[in-house]
Design brief:
With 137 residues, this protein is mainly β. It is built from two helices and nine strands; from the N terminus they run H-E-E-E-H-E-E-E-E-E-E. The protein is globular, with a radius of gyration of 14 Å. The relative contact order is 0.24.
Length: 137
């Protein structure tokens, strides 16, 4: 659950967080420990931003379980740090899809960042699990 205050802060830095209850789903790149909804995603290192200063040099697959993000493509200060694969999308795994999902394919952003002109930095993640010891591969 993401509160209104956090949604407002993310919006101010050019990141839109998907609706509550929605998760990133990928029927082709889910982890073996997934419980059937395909919401525990094993992301490829190729989906990371190409910057050694941000993500380092030695990259391994990342596990992600959380909601999707969308970034403002007109804002040159926003960086898509980790995106979903071309088969990912963000939707509620417990309901049928009736409308076009919030984010689809490579436009499904998992981690976004912003470096302001004064060098202040903000990172937005749609997953608290991503930061847990259990998700270190």
């Amino acid at each position: 659950q993401t509160g209104d205050a956090l949604r407002e802060i993310a919006s101010e830095v050019g990141v839109e967080i998907d609706e509550s209850g929605n998760s990133v789903i990928d029927h082709f790149n889910f982890h073996q420990k997934d419980e059937g909804d395909h919401v525990m995603i094993a992301t490829s290192p190729s989906n990371l931003v190409k910057s050694d200063q941000i993500v380092g040099e030695d990259n391994t697959p990342c596990l992600y379980r959380g909601t999707g993000l969308a970034t403002d493509t007109a804002n040159p200060l926003v960086i898509n740090i980790l995106s979903g694969s071309s088969t990912s999308y963000s939707h509620n795994p417990q309901s049928d899809i009736k409308d076009y999902p919030h984010a689809v394919g490579k436009n499904t952003i998992l981690i976004a960042g912003l470096q302001a002109r004064n060098n202040a930095r903000v990172v937005v993640l749609g997953s608290t699990d991503f930061l847990s010891d259990d998700f270190i591969t």
